[in-house]
Amino acid sequence: MSKVLAVFGATGQQGSSVVNHVLQDPALAQQYTIRALTRDTGSEKSQQLRAKGVDIVTADVLERASLQDALRGVHTVFAMTTPLIGPDVPEGEAALNWEFENAKRIADVALAMGVKYLIFSTLPSVRDVSGGKYTAVTPFDAKAKAETYIRSLSPKMESAFFCPGNFMENFQAQFWIAPRKIDGIWTLARPALATSKIPLIAAVDDSGRFVGKILAHPEKYAGKRFCAAEGRYSWDDIAAALGKSAGQKVVYKQIGYEQWRGMFPFAGKLFEEAFRYAEEFGGYFGEEEESELSWAIGEIGERGDLLGFEQFLEKYPFQLQE
After folding, report:
1. Backbone angles phi, psi at 93, to 5 degrees
2. What single DSSP character describes residue 114?
3. Which one of 207, 261, 266, 276 has the fewest CB atoms closer than 10 angstroms to its CB?
4. DSSP character for 235?
5. pLDDT of amino acid 88
6. Nearest to residue 253, comparing CAs of 182, 184, 322?
7. Which parts of 113-256 fold into alpha helices (H)?
8. What's the pLDDT band for 84 if we cut at 50, 70, 90?
9. In Å, how far are 7, 71, 114, 223 from 74, measured between CA atoms?
């Protein structure tokens, strides 16, 4: 009999990738029956999953009773949490604690309902890596704190961790920091050096590849963290690739932190500290970034199985907006 795999955020980027990967992998499709968890079972994306034969179940991370119903009879969970970012919402410790408590609630209910294995989408702890110097990057710190808590539940419930790099999709979605015309030239502006590199992953296409490896070999990867990305790209390379896709030249320009902070409609300090941390402490994943990425890519197979940034932009062309 197949095991029930409950996927949080099944209609979002990471969750949908996990669902589709399992459905398309013959071995995983036999091993697991998917239960897609979402707040809106009537959405178009939910209906698309239902058409593929996926069981769609309502789950609200803010309501323990909802989680109990959603996780009844589940063997394995893929869980992710969304940060509290936006206008007119708390920032700082309040935002960190809000997201952490949501993750903790999922883990506590999963344990109480007899779930055997939890795969959690995590991120590095900026405040720990920086020795407490940077404390505003709460989406990272909340997930890292949740990871520590989830690890403490072993051996009653085993766990593994998917730690994705920057989403390639963000360059199109985050329009307020997309390339813009400066003195008539399309310019990608960031406070980092042009040669600084960031890890990129096609979240929708490739998150499932990493999580699928854990699902295929849960005992082997218990307690492991997959720092997941196709590769590391310099800002110069990113600008050139965006321009090539859009059919216009795009150049990279390093700007000051005050100007960068002013580009955000909200949470400017968060994004400022995220860049300061990466520049000062070795990158998005910290000083061991290259080795951790190499290990993760090696575990899932050849790098060519993942979508490179130029391939991503060929599949999903980038559009410049005046």
Report:
1. -60, -35
2. T
3. 266
4. H
5. 77
6. 182
7. 126-129, 138-151, 170-173, 203-216, 218-221, 235-246
8. confident
9. 10, 5, 8, 20
- CB of 76 within 8 A of CB of 37? no
| Measured distance CA(76)–CA(91) in Å, rounded | 32
**Phi and psi for 303 in degrees, rounded to 5?**
-60, -30
Residue 6 to residue 18: CA distance in whole angstroms: 10
Q: Which two tokens stand for residue 16?
A: 């949908």
Nearest to 106 by CA among 129, 125, 80: 80
End-to-end CA distance of the chain: 55
Q: Which residues, 6+ apart, have CB-to-CB distance to 43 below 8 Å? A: 11
pTM of the predicted protein model: 0.95
Which one-letter amino acid corresponds to residue 138? T
Separation between Cα atoms, residue 82 and residue 13, nearest integer Å: 12
Provide the pairing of β-strand 55-58 with 197-201.
Answer: unpaired
Is beta strand 117-121 parallel, antiparallel or unpaired with respect to 180-182? unpaired
Among 122, 97, 98, 118, residue whose Cα is nearest residue 109: 118
Radius of gyration from C-alpha coordinates of the chain: 20
Spatial CB neighbours of 129, under 8 Å, sequence gap ≥ 6: 277, 281, 286
Strand positions, DSSP E, 9-63: 32-38, 55-58
DSSP secondary structure, 20-80, as one string: HHHHH-HHHHHHEEEEEEES-TTSHHHHHHHHTT-EEEE--TT-HHHHHHHTTT-SEEEE-
SS3 state at 81: coil
| pLDDT per position as a tens digit, 143-156 | 999 999 999 999 99
